[in-house]
Automatic annotation (TrEMBL):
Keyword hit for Transferase: yes
GO molecular function: phosphorelay sensor kinase activity
Source organism (scientific name): Paenibacillus herberti
Name this protein carries in UniProt: Two-component sensor histidine kinase
Subcellular location: Cell membrane
UniProt cross-references to CDD domains, sorted A to Z: HAMP
UniProt xrefs under PROSITE patterns: HAMP
Membrane-spanning ranges: 12-32, 292-312
GO-annotated cellular components: plasma membrane
SMART domains noted in UniProt: HAMP, HATPase_c
Membrane protein topology class: Multi-pass membrane protein
Length: 690
């Protein structure tokens, strides 16, 4: 068929040219954006690195000066001599000489110290420096003196000053800090010590914050006043949002007047370092990158034209050969193998096509085997129904023999057992039962269990009549009831209570089985819940979808709700004991009371061997399965398998949930879909079957 006038070579040339050109443009834009992000990240990392290094420098300075100040404030001999008020001139001279020596030792321990000054509360002043000191009068009324007193013995950073704040002879810039002195025994203030050191280490640390040669760094105190600045710094800038970092090491970034402003909190004195960098210094690499991308983009477009021309000429020949080989396969020759003998991509395409042909052949063979296996399974299922029919027919005969001998209670057990076999032996693929039919099976089972437990079991069933026609998968409730009786109620030394309720919630049917048995340990409950969580993995590959789930619900909903008319109506099995009756023979209603007692030894003997309720059956029906965790119709389905069946039938959102506590019992909740034609009950009416 003619689809156009352009040849394959022309089409390939146009497609390749536009594709490669578009790719070049897109890649260039992405690369530019990526480079911009990396540049910004680089600037941020550089800023963080500078801040981290500066904080480290300030931290070292802080520790060094703090240790220096403590060497005087914690010197016991010095503090004692500062308080000595001896009247002897010789002793006073000796004390002053000793104090001066101690101060001098501290002074010469660091090269950057300019002066150390101790001022006691009784007016004595001790100084040590490189020159003769002249203390300024009125220092007690200064702000820095009051700041030291308010520090309570902690180091107080006063700031950087153009000259000494106490020595009128010292005109060099100083970094001043001090600490209040206390009596080490009575902890009362005795004076203050003032240190003046060179600000060069602080200024060097500030230079480390510069991000470019044109950057300016400012050091401000907690009140926002300028403490110091690098050379060339101008007016103190304001942060873009008016905020300052509050945590040591924290940095805030703001844009102001084509400048990047970075503020960082320093580790002492509540000082903040503010770095201002012009944007033009930061965008130098970005401008160079733009120029580079333009040149590379033009070169790549030219290369794309050449590549499209060459490739379009060389690709058409092997493609035609490939098409000829594939047409042979199209005619039905699945045994032929395609050999492109061309580019690596063509060879890969041919290999993929060959694998696909082989897989199709394998799938056809597998479908044949699956069809044969399905036929064999149907024959085996039909064969397996012969023996159950013979068994429950024999049980019916035994029932009528007991009825003739007026063994009513024992006959009731045999009849219930017969009905259970009849119910469980019919498994029709895709045909659900109603909730009423499932309840009839549960009542037969509880009839046997109640007599077996000699009246220690109390059962309550609270299910509205209008829910009896709801379709549910067969054998959904019995494994849950059986598990509650065997593992929850039988180990009890006293009476046990089993409650079965149903309600409509959020358009779904919620069945609850509750017992007051021994309960489960947290480890067992977690293992059970983990099995529920892992159950969906068994459904991988089943093809369940929301549409399939809705279709399954709709098919079950189309089942006539009148199918429940022949089952037992709403009732309540309450306080059932060996002296009370269960559902009578052939009754589908509430049942009638039969007077008389049953020989408990005879009843127990009837369950000792060969019963469907023996210990192996009960073990198989528990959720703790030692084998594969999969049940069968003959040997206990199990909680996990019920959960998997509901997931398989209805999809996600349906299944079992478990709650349990040791000594309080267990609650199992079953969530099932509700057909739209079912009447939503306003309230649940209890049924009573006594």
């Amino acid at each position: 068929m003619r689809r156009g006038s352009k040849t394959l070579q022309q089409r390939l040339f146009i497609v390749l040219l536009f594709s490669m050109t578009g790719i070049v443009i897109v890649v260039s834009l992405l690369f530019y954006n990526r480079a911009t992000e990396q540049l910004q990240r680089k600037i941020s990392d550089l800023s963080s690195k500078n801040v981290s290094q500066t904080i480290g420098l300030f931290d070292l300075l802080d520790k060094g000066f703090d240790s220096l100040s403590k060497s005087i404030s914690n010197n016991f001999d010095l503090v004692r001599m500062l308080q000595d008020r001896s009247a002897e001139p010789r002793e006073q001279f000796a004390n002053e000489r000793s104090i001066t020596n101690i101060i001098g030792a501290n002074f010469f321990s660091r090269d950057d110290l300019i002066g150390i000054h101790i001022m006691t509360d009784d007016g004595n002043i001790y100084n040590y420096g490189n020159y003769i000191n002249e203390v300024m009068p009125g220092y007690r009324s200064t702000d820095w003196y009051r700041s030291i007193l308010s520090g309570g013995g902690k180091i107080v950073w006063l700031g950087i000053y153009p000259s000494s704040i106490i020595d009128s002879n010292e005109t060099r810039p100083v970094l001043a800090f001090g600490r209040q002195l206390f009596d080490l025994d009575e902890h009362r203030p005795i004076g203050v010590v003032l240190y003046e050191t060179s600000p060069a280490p602080i200024l060097a640390a500030l230079d480390n914050l510069k991000m470019s040669p044109n950057s300016e760094v400012y050091l401000v105190d907690a009140d926002g006043d300028l403490v110091s600045a690098t050379d060339g710094a101008k007016e103190l800038p304001r942060l873009g949002d008016g905020k300052r970092p509050t945590v040591t090491g924290e940095s805030l970034v703001a844009e102001r007047d084509n400048q990047l402003v970075v503020s960082s909190r320093l580790p002492f004195a509540e000082w903040t370092a503010i770095t201002v960098t012009p944007d033009r210094d930061l965008n130098v690499e970005l401008v160079e990158m733009q120029r580079y991308l333009i040149i590379v983009g033009v070169a790549l477009v030219l290369l794309s034209i050449i590549t499209a021309t060459v490739f379009s000429k060389t690709i058409s020949s092997p493609l035609k050969r490939m098409i000829r080989e594939m047409k042979r396969v199209e005619l039905g020759n699945f045994q032929s193998q395609v050999d492109a003998g061309s580019y690596r991509e063509m060879d890969a395409l041919a290999s993929s096509f060959n694998r696909m042909v082989r897989q199709i052949g394998h799938l056809i063979e597998r479908m044949k085997q699956s069809a044969a296996s399905e036929k064999n399974a149907e024959l085996q299922a039909l064969q397996s129904q012969v023996n159950p029919h013979f068994l429950y027919n024999t049980l019916d005969m035994i029932y009528w023999m007991l009825d003739e001998r007026e063994e009513d209670d024992l006959g009731e057990v045999v009849l219930a057992l017969s009905r259970m076999f009849r119910y469980s032996s019919h498994w029709e693929q895709g045909v659900p039962v109603t909730l009423g039919e499932e309840l009839e099976q549960i009542r037969d089972y509880l009839t046997i269990i109640t007599i077996r437990l000699e009246g220690r079991l109390v059962v309550e069933i609270d299910i509205p009549q209008e829910l009896y026609g709801v379709p549910i998968p067969k054998m959904t409730l019995q494994p849950v009831i059986e598990n509650a009786v065997k593992h929850g109620l039988e180990p009890l030394s006293g009476d046990g209570k089993l409650t079965l309720t149903a309600e409509v919630r959020d358009g779904r049917l919620l069945l609850t089985v509750r017992d007051n048995g021994v309960g489960m340990t947290e480890e067992t409950l977690e293992r059970l819940q983990a099995s529920f969580s892992l159950a969906p993995t068994a459904l991988v590959g089943t093809g369940l979808t929301e549409q399939g789930e809705a279709r399954g619900v709709r098919q079950e909903g189309e089942r006539d709700s009148s199918a429940a008319q022949g089952v037992v109506g709403p009732g309540k099995i309450g306080n059932i004991s060996a002296e009370q009756s269960v559902v009578g023979p052939g009754k589908t209603g509430g049942g009638s009371t039969v007077e008389g007692l049953v020989d408990s030894d005879k009843l127990r003997g009837s369950f000792s061997e060969g019963s469907m309720l023996d210990q192996s059956k009960m073990r198989d029906s528990s959720f703790v399965m030692g084998k594969s965790g999969r049940g069968t119709a003959q040997g206990g389905i199990g909680l996990v398998n019920v959960h998997r069946r509901l997931l398989h039938t209805f999809g996600q959102g349906y299944g079992l949930q478990a709650e349990s506590r040791i000594g309080e019992g267990t609650v199992i909740r079953l969530t099932l879909p509700l057909p739209p034609q079912v009447i939503r009950p306003g309230s649940a009416e209890s049924e009573d079957t006594n």
